[in-house]
Write a structure and sequence with these properties.
heterodimer, A: mainly alpha, globular, disordered N terminus, B: alpha/beta, FAD/NAD(P)-binding domain, Cholesterol Oxidase, domain 2, eight-stranded mixed β-sheet, four-stranded antiparallel β-sheet, about 25% helix, binds flavin-adenine dinucleotide, binds iron/sulfur cluster
């Protein structure tokens, strides 16, 4: 796929057409997600289990998680250049998922599989050809909004889970906390 | 300002644990299965378990405490929000009711909720005790019966009304309430030598907070009790109708993986104090007899909704004693039929907490976050369980045996929430807010009370839209004499099995209408004292 060159090489035209696409496929996606709306089909979608980390520095995060949350980050936290700290963000996310109940981590990763997996991504994102790292911020934003406003439970759940997790993991990193004007805790000295 | 303070010179009581002869086992390091014997095994080391362990060891009984969470104490409390949430909170702060519903915060560490709670210490309201007596046949738990136990806890934990000025966040509640003629009061706190830092929710770095971690648990250890942490009790061991002990799995230190090692404790008596949701979970996993199907039913949350306000003045809602002012003006309305009661307090708003509670994405989230130092936050805690319109939730087991709470919203609750949103907004504008926003996904910031009220009237209160959370889980193993409703008697003894007691927040037949810890210290002390006499 040409996808690796995107989003930098993307023209405004591409963006618009992709957004249109999202609009029309949005309707089909509703149908597709309706059929996916059951725990058993979620289970089938899970190709990997939590704990199978992609990179040695992560306990839990897999390639799919990194791809998705990396793409969501700029749209969720609206930082001028969130790429700078995406490593710390991913570490924070990894730590949260590693310490969460194994079942929680697994459920979250099932939702990640749903929106990144080859079979279901098209229905959930409205884009059959492009993958998460290819989307620009506006596209990610439209996808998030379509989930949020969906008539169906599953996309709404995905929206609530992934946005909250992204914002939480980002704002738990001490360096990112300073963006809010919070000056940090007292200095702790153990003697 | 707090960030300029240096915290030093604190002597962590666990530093010389070995020299003191304290018996502490980290189950994550076990090479083999661990088998222990005791007079009493106490499962969970929070408000209920910590208190019980001390009382029972003082009585000369051989006690083993089992705790699922980590042992972390003041030397390692660095006030970082991210580290606290992963190391000290259940499910790394992600626990929610079924279907992305209500966010439920519980402590998971040695000390349980008391290590990370915000120090508010109220006795059980008289109205609540009366309600339990009348509706659940609870005996021997009147105001006078519990008073001696409350007095002991208040003395031991130095509970008194916060003597210093409230921080800005709390002061605004007082200011707004006064303007509107609402009653308010000063919160009693369990602290001694408090530095007014504000990090009670991350583990007090100076051991000023008199949590179980630094009071009853060290006292039990000093008297020979044994503590095994990083072990999650799976089920009770039984011989017919008799409980003979418990069995649990060891977990690794830094993540939620089972190590494959088992911990088994046989004991004359078992005390479950794993907290609401999880004590019922152990009973359900153990297939405990339950003729009226009451285990885990009527679990309450004091469901919390928030209202945020922006002020011209700097508030720094994260610094200073987190909770020092409350208002009970709306807690006990004259007529429960038309209006659920709610208590008003504030909460410490660190960046991660703010992001978690708000949810959402993009511009609105960003705008709110970057105004944090000038942001005020109120919360209303709904007094659930006193009316048929708020029957609470039920604990269920997932396929893997995990205890999860199903807590549907009712119109009685959501009507009350609308009322509370309006009240909070009124208080904030009365105190001088320039804009307010309710904790709801679709809420905008509003510059006037009328605009804000119009929006509150319009926004639907639904799970996933309104941001609803809880830090007070109660009920699910009601106590009382009415056996059709209560799984324990009026002393916390489980009705349908021998040698089993429950001493934690799951005992409460309804919510409390006040922050729970002192109520739990009180009943646990009373019931454990009684139990010790019989063993
Ligand atoms: C952020 C926050 C702030 C709060 N602020 C206040 C406040 O200001 N005032 C107040 O009164 N209350 C407050 N609370 C609530 C209060 O701390 C709890 O209601 C109280 O501690 C509950 O006591 P408990 O004994 O029922 O359970 P907990 O204190 O929750 O203790 C239960 C313990 O059992 C352990 N456990 C669970 N399952 C198992 C298992 N299977 N095996 C072994 N161990 C297990 C848990 O890890 C936990 O440590 C707050 C709570 C939170 C989360
Ligand atoms: S406010 Fe007081 S009790 Fe809370 S963390 Fe700071 S010093 Fe400890």
């Amino acid at each position: 796929m040409i996808s690796n060159e995107l989003p930098n090489g993307t023209t405004e035209q591409d963006r618009l057409s992709r957004r249109d696409f999202l609009g029309t496929v949005g309707k089909t996606s509703v149908l597709a997600t309706a059929t996916l709306y059951s725990a058993s089909s979620l289970a089938v979608l899970t190709s990997t289990r939590s704990g199978w980390a992609a990179e040695p520095q992560f306990l839990i995060l897999r390639d799919a998680d990194i791809k998705l949350f990396g793409a969501l980050l700029p749209a969720v936290v609206q930082q001028a250049n969130p790429k700078v700290d995406s490593q710390k963000f991913l570490q924070s996310l990894d730590s949260i998922l590693a310490h969460a109940d194994a079942e929680t981590a697994q459920l979250i990763q099932q939702l990640v599989d749903l929106v990144t997996g080859a079979l279901t991504r098209g229905a959930m994102t409205g884009s059959l050809f492009w993958d998460w790292p290819d989307f620009d911020v506006q596209t990610v934003n439209s996808i998030l909004e379509s989930w949020r406003e969906s008539y169906f439970e599953l996309p709404k759940t995905v929206y609530a889970v992934v946005t909250r997790l992204t914002a939480t993991a980002w704002y738990m990193v001490p360096e990112n906390q300073q963006i809010t004007g919070y000056k940090g805790p007292p200095k702790k000295i153990v003697d | 300002m707090q960030h300029e303070i240096e915290v030093a010179g604190i002597e962590d009581p666990y530093r010389n644990a070995q020299e003191k002869g304290w018996k502490i086992v980290n189950a994550s390091m076990l090479d083999d299965d661990l088998v222990l014997e005791a007079d009493v095994v106490v499962v969970g080391t929070g408000s209920g378990g910590g208190t019980a362990a001390e009382v029972l060891s003082e009585a000369g009984l051989r006690v083993v405490m089992l705790e699922e969470g980590m042992l972390k104490s003041s030397d390692r409390f660095n006030m970082a929000e991210g580290e606290a949430i992963t190391d000290l909170y259940r499910d790394a702060g992600l626990q929610s009711t079924k279907g992305e519903g209500i966010y439920v915060f519980q402590g998971q560490n040695v000390g349980g909720g008391t290590t990370i709670n915000w120090c508010a210490s109220f006795r059980t309201p008289t109205q609540t005790l009366r309600h339990w007596e009348q509706n659940f046949g609870l005996k021997g738990c009147g105001e006078d019966d519990l008073a001696p136990c409350f007095e002991i806890a208040e003395k031991q934990l130095n509970i008194m009304k916060w003597p210093a000025p409230p921080n800005k966040n709390n002061e605004i509640l007082k200011r707004g309430a006064e303007k509107l003629g609402f009653s308010w009061g000063v919160i009693p706190r369990n602290v001694d030598g408090c530095w007014d830092l504000g990090y009670c929710g991350q583990g007090c770095p100076v051991d000023a907070k008199k949590s179980m971690l630094v009071t009853t648990i060290p006292s039990a250890l000093q008297q020979g009790a044994k503590l095994v942490y990083r072990v999650a009790v799976n089920a009770l061991l039984r011989e017919g109708d008799r409980v003979t002990g418990v069995e649990g799995f060891a977990y690794s230190q830094d993540d939620r993986q089972r190590t494959g090692k088992k911990v088994t404790v046989s004991a004359k008596h078992v005390v479950l104090a794993a907290g609401a949701i999880h004590t019922p979970g152990i009973l359900l996993r153990s297939d405990a007899p339950d003729p009226y199907k009451r285990i885990g039913k009527r679990t309450f949350l004091h469901p919390v909704i928030n209202s945020y306000a922006q002020f011209k003045e700097q508030i720094d809602p994260y610094y200073g004693a987190p909770q020092s002012i409350y208002s009970d003006h709306f807690t006990w309305p004259e007529d429960d039929e038309t209006q659920i009661g709610y208590k008003l307090e504030v909460l410490p708003l660190l960046p991660g907490t703010y992001a978690t509670l708000q949810g959402g994405h993009g511009a609105v989230l960003h705008e709110s976050m970057t105004k944090l130092p000038n942001t005020h936050v109120l919360m209303a805690l709904m007094r659930d369980g006193f009316h048929e319109g708020s029957p609470g939730g039920s604990v269920e087991l997932s396929e893997n045996g995990r205890a999860v709470l199903d807590y549907p919203l009712t119109s009685y609750l959501t009507d009350g929430m609308k009322h509370a949103f309006e009240t909070m907004t009124e208080i904030q504008f009365a105190a001088g807010a320039v804009a307010t926003r309710i904790g709801h996904r679709d809420s905008a910031w509003h510059n006037s009370l009328s605009e804000a009220k119009e929006a509150i009237g319009r926004l639907p209160i639904e799970l996933g839209k309104a941001s609803i959370s809880s830090a007070h889980v109660m009920g699910g193993c009601a106590m009382g004499e009415d056996e059709t409703q209560c799984v324990t008697d009026s002393e916390g003894r489980f009705r349908h099995l021998e040698n089993l007691s429950i001493f934690d927040g799951s005992l409460f037949p309804t919510s409390l209408g006040a922050n729970p810890q002192l109520s739990i210290f009180g009943v646990s002390r009373k019931f454990a004292t009684k139990l010790a006499e019989t063993l």
